[in-house]
Structure formats: structure tokens, C-alpha cells
Amino acid sequence: MTKRPLAVTIISWFLIVGGVISVFSISFSLNNPIARDMMSKSLLPLPVQVAMVYVGVVIGITSGVAMLKCRKWGRTLYVSWSALGFLVSLVTSPLRLMLIPSILVFGIMVYFLFRPDANEYFNAGVK
């Protein structure tokens, strides 16, 4: 089997640890009146936003674990869900400029997840 590229390892752990931390921060944010007020300005109802955030956390953690285990579908799931999330946010968010840093980080992660060494690693895991 091909050795896992360092970038894939870092990104995978970033998704896993970030997801675990997000579970706690989301819980505290939902009790914050300022955060709830900001969320209420979106075109999406608050329960839909909360559901998307929690589904996103589960997908992030699942994708991270799958990528560590050389599963190509983990990379595809992460990239697809994130792209869909950014698209929904661009359409519904009242604070679109705040998405720029996240989109830049996502772009960098996608670059490293689709480099030739990462493609070789994920293709080796395809049965």
C-alpha cells in the first residue's frame, strides 16, 4: 500500500479534532443571544441551520477517519459536502464576506487532497 501523504494526515486530523471541538462550541453558541440573533438573519430557518451544522460535523469526522483509512469516498464526501455548504451559505448568509477565510482554507485543503501523491494514496485504497 502507498504511504499516506503528510498533508492527508494533517487534513484528516484537522477534520476530526475540529469536529469534536465544534460539537462543544456549537452547543455554547446556540445559547448565546448574539449568535442566535445573527443566525436569525439568514434566509434559512434556525432549526435547518442547526441540523446542517451537526450533519456537517458528523460528515467532517467521518471523512477524516475514512481518509486516514485510505478511503477515497471520504475525500469525495468532505469536498462535496463542504462545496454544497459554501454554496448554501453564499446564497443565504447575510455575512458573505465572513466566508472568504473559510473558502480559502477549503481551497488549500482541496489542493493538497488532489495532489498526485494523494491521488496515488486514495487510488491504492480502492478495492
Summarize this entry quickly.
The chain is an all-alpha fold. The chain has helices at 6-29, 33-40, 46-68, 72-92, 100-113, 116-124.
SSE map:
Layout lengths: L5 H24 L3 H8 L5 H23 L3 H21 L7 H14 L2 H9 L3
Helix pairs in contact: 1-3, 3-4, 4-5
Question: Can you put this structure into words, describing what you see?
Answer:
The chain has 6 helices and no strands. With 127 residues, the chain is an all-alpha fold. It has one domain.
Q: Provide the helix percentage.
A: over 70%
Mean pLDDT: 90
What is the percentage of strand-forming residues?
under 5%
- Distinct helical segment count: 6
Let me know the largest β-sheet. none
Question: How much is the radius of gyration in Å?
Answer: 16 Å
Shape: elongated
Q: What is the number of strand segments?
A: 0
Poorly predicted regions are none
N-to-C span: 12 Å
Structure keywords:
127 residues, mainly alpha, elongated
